[in-house]
Amino acid sequence: MKTNTYKSKIATALLEKGFMTDKQLDTIEEYQKLGVFSLHTELRLLLYLSVLLFTSGIGILIYQNIDSIGHDVIIVCLFLLIAVSLYFCFKKAKGFHKEEVAFDNTIYDYLVLLIAILSCIFIGYLQFQYTLFGENYGIATLVPTIISFCYAYYFDNKSVLSIAVSGLAACIGLTVTPQKVLDTEFYSNDTLAFSAIGLGLLLILWTMYSSKSKLKIHFNLLYLTFALHLICIATISKISEKEVPLYFLFALLLGGASYYFYKMSKEHNAVSLFVFALLYGYVGLNVLLFKVIDVIDFNGFWELLMYLLPAYFIGSIILFIQSVKKFNQQKNN
Questions:
Q1: Whose CA is closest to 116, among 72, 71, 59, 158?
Q2: d(CA 323, CA 329)
Q3: Helix axes 107-130, 158-171, angle to 10 degrees
Q4: Tens-place pLDDT, residues 94-122
Q5: Which domain, by its residues, includes 120?
Q6: How many domains does the chain divide into?
Q7: Domain boundary among 171, 186, 205
Q8: Could you say which DSSP state residue 105 is in?
Q9: Which site among 56, 119, 201, 326 is 20 to 30 Å from 256 CA-CA?
């Protein structure tokens, strides 16, 4: 209902500026009253799920029948499936362009996603079964990552780009999964945390280069999202772990990162960047405050703090909700 009201206001404003006639406005209002909605999003979700289910089904089928099928047959079938799919995608693709391009038919985007997943499976299978790259598993991870980047940029596919960036993180030994975050992987490994921060900064530098060279600028939001999570999670873990004065340095890095991503959220009109920039900054600030309070011995302060905490958190939630609402209003305007 709110969406229809908002669209009616836009149509009225266009009428007042002379961009449409009264008859056109009446037609638009009659159409809105029909309550027609698009199934585009639902169909895209079903296509995405079909790709995941298909690749999962292939994996289960191979696992259950590996002895009767044979490794060579599996590899040949995977190669043929990838080759045939690539043929159709190249045939329908518009070629590489710096700006955003799309297939005439959306189904080919999901076919590219299928190709990327199968390519990763194919190379991983060769490495596992025949040790194609010897004992160097870093190269075995880097090769499908590079291939995924090529697919993503040539076919202009954000889903494949997500696979490529995840592969890039895996190359430095980082597994970007909720389970690894819960297992506090960063806390026990300084090198891994610094690598995550370095990769995040590298992704930011790439977005700057892309913006300057006008190379697939619409990919920048995805790069910034990965960079945001990598840098902020790693710095928060180091703030929690390190002693004075090291955690102050990480706190400054987190503050600078939160401010940068806050600015980027405004520039890209991205609610996701805005929300997570606030959340990570808020979490980091609270961790820092509690560490400072723990170091400085305030007699009786903890008792007072226990009374103030409920009001503090409720106030924080209210301010957070108001900030998001204000951001959405500015975005719509």
A1: 158
A2: 10
A3: 30
A4: 889 999 988 888 888 888 998 998 898 88
A5: 65-171
A6: 2
A7: 171
A8: S
A9: 326
